[in-house]
Design brief:
Blueprint: H1 11-23, H2 25-30, H3 35-54, H4 59-80, H5 83-102, H6 111-132, H7 138-156, H8 162-183, H9 189-220
């Protein structure tokens, strides 16, 4: 295998994950539902989790596999058991991700990078408030969004590749904000449909690629 791919123990799982996640947009566009569709939805991030586990060589590798695993669980539970149960699964994954990223903080950051890190959480809170208040229960979305924003902040300021893991985490956050935009009628759901899943799955794939690749290459050196 080439130097770029030599670290990867299961590249075929990576391609299967992309196939599952990208193809699921067909179900999004067709507005399909049912147990088989939930399994399809779970396949993309679920296979990313299996791929990460196949490449795990130490604790951090298993942590990112757990992060992706809880993301896949959240994907399934959102439809199978409801919003609250699914959000809890995602929140657990975000907490594990924050632990991983804080343990791997970037040694040096430019002022602009540090500024984005500081602004992400308060900006997210303001955006969610502006889109959803004063509707009843808007603060539930605000609390959950802070978990996602904290994860994105920690990823952005971690030592993992910013143009993979950092941007991927910000894409994940953006996907949730577009969900809230649809819920708050700020944007039509016919518009957010084209944004939420591509940003979410693309973000998860970039997060996985950045973290798994970095850790596996380090283990081989």
């Amino acid at each position: 295998m080439s130097g770029e791919q030599g670290w990867d123990r299961a590249r075929w799982l990576w391609w299967l994950a992309l196939l599952g996640g990208i193809s699921f947009f067909i179900a999004v566009y067709q507005r399909l539902d049912g147990p088989a569709i939930w399994a399809w939805k779970t396949s993309g991030v679920g296979l990313l989790a299996v791929w990460a586990a196949a490449n795990a060589r130490e604790k951090n590798g298993w942590l990112i596999a757990a992060v992706l695993g809880f993301g896949a669980l959240g994907d399934y539970l959102l439809d199978a058991r409801g919003l609250v149960v699914g959000a809890v699964a995602f929140a657990v994954g975000h907490v594990i991700a924050i632990i991983l990223y804080l343990a791997n903080r970037r040694a040096q950051m430019t002022p602009s990078q540090r500024l984005l890190g500081w602004l992400t959480m308060p900006a997210t809170l303001v955006i969610v408030w502006a889109m959803l208040s004063p509707a009843a229960g808007w603060w539930h979305a605000a609390i959950y969004s802070l978990f996602v924003a904290a994860m994105a902040t920690a990823a952005w300021t971690s030592r993992f590749p910013r143009y993979r893991t950092g941007i991927g985490a910000m894409m994940f956050l953006a996907s949730d904000l577009f969900i809230f935009a649809g819920e708050g009628a700020v944007l039509s759901r016919d518009v957010t449909m084209w944004l939420v899943w591509p940003l979410y799955f693309g973000g998860q794939a970039l997060i996985a690629w950045g973290v798994v690749g970095t850790l596996a290459k380090e283990a081989r050196s």
